[in-house]
Specification:
Thiol Ester Dehydrase, Chain A, alpha+beta, single chain, 6 helices, 288 residues, 12-stranded antiparallel sheet
Length: 288
């Protein structure tokens, strides 16, 4: 809790056990969370990093599709098994499963590619949004609230998040619409390792992706009896970017039904370059 950025780097520093039959085995710790469950973005990032350890350095992750199977326990280490499914001339495919107490908590497939040339275009970054410096930090919006979850959100996260139009911690201000944007940046400087930044991008992609679902219905995180859980997560890395520089995370929800909500996201750097696209469906249950 005293140094969340160091906690992030420690969690992403996986240990190679040296064991291998038909799979590569790694282990990693979990960051503390006030509710005792492993943060989904953490296990996503760790699973991607485990897969990265098994491909040549000239192949970069470009897509990932994962399912959250069970909640993880922050008090237990996580074991990652990587199956080297395919190695082609340009692409490689890996399956990573994350285990605790002998059962999987996440199953993910990631694809890697060597650098290549081809056609190129991108969706433009929205215009007219306020700069991050003009918005309050998460710590400022939660200042003075004496609750373990609020304290964890305010000072226990390795990333600073600044919402547009405003956060939905306890209330939803303004119009109830299925979209929002968030400026996000690591609270300190990270090492230059490109794969660490790619994995950290997966980590932060899970932070607020379902909030567009909640905002559409006027639901704040503090709504009594609200239950939210990530079900699956997909991500496509388009271009490289550093997570210790300001990124704009644009989010929208096209659908909610059956106790599930779907949200789509696009992550830009400050110059308007599209770095990644994200999709997640989550369980969203409200009190009857």
């Amino acid at each position: 809790m005293s140094d969340p950025l160091s906690g992030l780097l420690a969690a992403l520093d996986l240990t190679d056990t040296g064991a291998r039959t038909n799979e590569d085995i790694f282990t990693g710790p979990s960051q503390w969370q006030p509710h005792g469950r492993v943060f989904g973005g953490q296990v996503l990032a760790q699973s991607v990093l485990a897969a990265m350890r098994t491909v040549p350095e000239d192949r970069f992750v470009h897509s990932m599709h994962g399912y959250f199977l069970r909640p993880g326990d922050v008090a237990l280490p996580i074991t990652f098994s990587v199956d080297r499914i395919h190695d082609g001339r340009s692409f490689a495919t890996r399956r990573t499963q994350a285990f605790q107490s002998g059962v999987p908590i996440l199953s993910m497939i990631a694809s890697f590619q060597t650098e290549d040339e081809g056609i190129e275009h991108q969706a433009a970054m929205p215009e007219g949004l306020p700069d991050p410096e003009s918005l309050p930090s998460g710590a400022e919006t939660l200042q003075g609230i004496d609750h373990p979850v609020a304290r964890a959100w305010a000072t226990g996260r390795p990333f600073d998040m600044r919402h547009i139009p405003s956060p939905i911690w306890f209330t939803v201000e303004g119009e109830h619409v299925p979209h929002q944007a968030v400026w996000i940046k690591a609270i300190g400087t990270l090492p230059d390792d490109p794969n660490l930044h790619r994995a950290s991008l997966a980590y932060l992609s899970d932070y607020s992706i379902l909030e567009s679902v909640l905002r559409a219905h006027g639901l704040a995180w503090g709504t009594p009896g609200l239950s939210v859980a990530s079900l699956d997560h997909a991500m496509w890395w388009h271009r490289f970017g550093r997570v210790d520089e300001w990124l704009l995370y644009v989010q929208e929800s096209p659908n909610a039904i059956g106790g599930r909500g779907l949200s789509l996201g696009r992550i830009y750097n400050r110059e308007g370059v599209l770095l990644a696209s994200v999709a997640q469906e989550g369980m969203v249950r409200i009190p009857r």
